[in-house]
Design a protein that fits this description.
It is built from 14 helices and 14 strands. It is an alpha/beta fold and 354 residues long. The strands form three sheets. A six-stranded mixed β-sheet has the order 9-10-11-12-14-13. α7 (176-187) crosses α9. It is globular and about 70 Å long. 30% of the residues are buried. The mean pLDDT is 95.
């Protein structure tokens, strides 16, 4: 094991052009969580390249050459002898004992309860981060975002290989049951769905136990491959389901629904900005902190928006909504309403605005 540690210690880290993310690393110990291909490894390697080479060691725990028992016996002493101050355990597994060191960084899809580490969740690119990969900041950038989604690697995969690449990535990262559930969730994007409904649908196509499905479903939630949105004032009501990235829709199902895709994309922007929100009948997102209702209406106009306002007036009055924003593809404007301020805002302005 010592020979392998020497090899890893001496290996130079290679990193292609790195695009800054909205989170960054300092001289703290971290647990970096995120789905497969969200950019955890690149974020860490970019940080390591700012350090003195002799002060760190990067270990990918998925390396099949690693014997966990031997690693646990030798790692602490190896770090001490070589005066290593920063240890990175990528693809971390609990079978590896955490050693005492100045800076420890672990990366994993799953979150572990380790009080000594600062937790960072890394999601796929939001729209503003995505723009760093674009040559022009115009309407073509938004169209590319719809096609590629937020996975950084998609910019390097040719268009005819993207679907299969995503499928292979997910099959490698997930269990067979988790993958099947995710495929079904892709069909139900931006809709109200319960785990029992998923069980009822899937049991007709494969042999399945309810307990195993529920466990796999919870694993997908915990690792944030899927997200749930609660109904305002009704925590026990069926929640709306969203995917971790819009690219999964086209990669996992042939069913099309642009409005639901658009709504999922909006949810992810709210999620990544750490905005607390809920849904209600007729209201896609309600933001209590700002008393705002946000509607996914990619192809609306003033007339359609005015009719929509009539349908949700009771909600606006009950929750004292001060502002309604209808997010569109490219239309901008205002609608007069006695209860609150109403505006249409293009997605690219809404997503990167203050």
């Amino acid at each position: 094991m010592e020979i392998l540690l020497e090899e890893l210690y001496k290996t130079d880290i290679q990193l292609e052009k790195f695009h800054d993310r909205k989170i960054f690393l300092e001289d703290l110990s971290y647990q970096i969580n995120g789905i497969s291909q969200s950019g955890k490894t690149k974020l860490v390697k970019n940080y390591l390249l700012s350090l003195k080479k002799s002060n760190y060691i990067y270990i990918d725990c998925a390396d099949i050459r690693i014997d966990y028992t031997l690693l646990n016996k030798e790692l602490f002493n190896f770090c001490k002898v070589n005066q290593i101050t920063t240890l990175v355990l990528d693809n971390y597994t609990p079978e590896i004992e955490l050693t005492h060191i100045s800076q420890l960084i672990i990366c994993s899809q799953k979150h572990y309860d380790i009080a000594s580490l600062t937790t960072l969740w890394l999601y796929p690119l939001d729209y503003e981060e995505f723009l760093a990969y674009e040559y022009k900041y115009d309407s073509s950038a938004l169209n590319h975002f719809f096609k590629l989604g937020g996975f950084p690697f998609m910019h390097k995969v040719s268009s005819d290989e993207r679907t299969i690449y995503i499928q292979k990535t997910l099959r490698y990262a997930l269990s067979e049951m988790e993958f099947d559930i995710l495929c079904f969730c892709a069909k139900m994007m931006s809709q109200k769905i319960s785990p029992f409904t998923i069980y009822e649908r899937l049991k007709h196509t494969r042999k399945i136990s309810k307990d195993k499905l529920y466990l796999s479903y919870e694993n997908l939630l915990e690792k944030k491959y899927i997200h749930l949105l609660e109904k305002i004032d009704y925590p026990k009501a069926t929640k709306k389901l969203y995917l971790c990235d819009i690219s999964l829709k086209a990669a996992l199902t042939i069913e099309k629904n642009f409005t639901r895709l658009f709504e999922n994309m909006m949810y992810l922007e709210l999620l990544k900005s750490d905005t607390t929100c809920y849904y209600d009948e007729g209201v896609d997102f309600y933001l209590p902190a700002t008393e705002e209702a946000v509607l996914a209406m990619p192809f609306t106009d003033e007339r359609a928006l005015f009719k929509k306002m009539e349908k949700i007036e009771a909600f606006l009055f009950t929750h004292h909504v001060k502002k309604v924003t209808a997010v569109t593809m490219n239309r901008e404007g205002r609608v007069s309403h006695p209860l609150c301020k109403v505006q249409m805002l293009p997605f690219d302005i809404w997503a990167i605005g203050d």
